[in-house]
Amino acid sequence: MKSDLSIPKLTVKREIDSISGEMDVHYYWESKLSPKVELIGKPVDKLSGYTLIKKDLDNSLNWIRVAEKLSNNAYDTNEVVKEHSQVYQVAKDREISDHIKAYFVASLTFYGKCFTNANGRHAQVARDWLDLEHQQLHDYFMKYRHNFAAHSGDEHIELAKTFVLLHPNKKILLPYLPTARLQPDVVLTSSKGEKGLAELIEYVSIIVVERYNKLSDKIINEFILTHDMEFWHTAIDNGKPVIVKFSHSS
């Protein structure tokens, strides 16, 4: 899956209508405007959806990397017990921890979004695309997504406990109801070689790119190249999108 900007000799100019918000894009090959034909249809909708999923995964990976970097300053890494895959610690700096939580939740939310039904993108990642090891890791982080980032569920990942306090002399009650709120800021593995959210995102990204490339090759070989240049010149003259359909034998 190549970015438009990564193709040699190709440059892209995007325009947006400041009133309507409609966007248009123009492609230039060696600085000369290249005529374009829009493709529509279920195969193309799915292909486009894969690109949106990949963008979400890229953002998700960037955000969890920022959270990991910030966590190095927010927690005492010297206290990490190496034989434990998950270590819980109280943050030293609440402000930094709030930033960590924002990046972690954003990363987890966008990752989970890739696996949910989205009518606007016509594509989603399926859990059974993953091998067994990564399915287990996926389930682990989706638990946090369902019970913390998106909802508050029965797993009690976030808690709030309210207390009644007695004076230290135990003779009178203090007229306050303090509540302790407990939420994770970020879920990271602590030992080298163990997989965490970042590694899971990278793995899923590879799968999405593979599926994109396979579908892209099919569209090119079984539709685009089966039509001659006259067909495409006519499509440009008509100014209407071309519907991509495969023959029954393909």
Total number of distinct structural domains: 1
The gyration radius over C-alpha positions equals 25 Å
- Percent helix among the residues? 40-55%
The total beta strand count reads 9
How far the N terminus sits from the C terminus, by CA atoms, comes to 23 Å
Calculate the mean pLDDT score and round it.
83
Percentage of residues in strands: 5-15%
What would the principal axes of the Cα set say about the shape? Answer: elongated
| Low-confidence parts | 80-85
Description:
- α1 packs antiparallel against α2 (94-113), α1 packs antiparallel against α4 and α2 packs across α3 (132-149).
- The two termini are 23 Å apart.
- The chain is an alpha+beta fold and 250 residues long.
- Mean pLDDT is 83; it is low at 80-85.
- Strands 1-2-3 form a three-stranded antiparallel β-sheet, with no helix packed on it. It has a two-stranded parallel ribbon with strand order 4-9.
- It has one domain (35-243).
- A hairpin with a 2-residue loop joins β2 and β3 (32-33).
- The chain has helices at residues 42-74, 94-113, 132-149, 197-222, 229-238, and strands spanning 10-16, 23-29, 32-33, 39-40, 159-162, 165-166, 173-174, 179-182, 242-243.
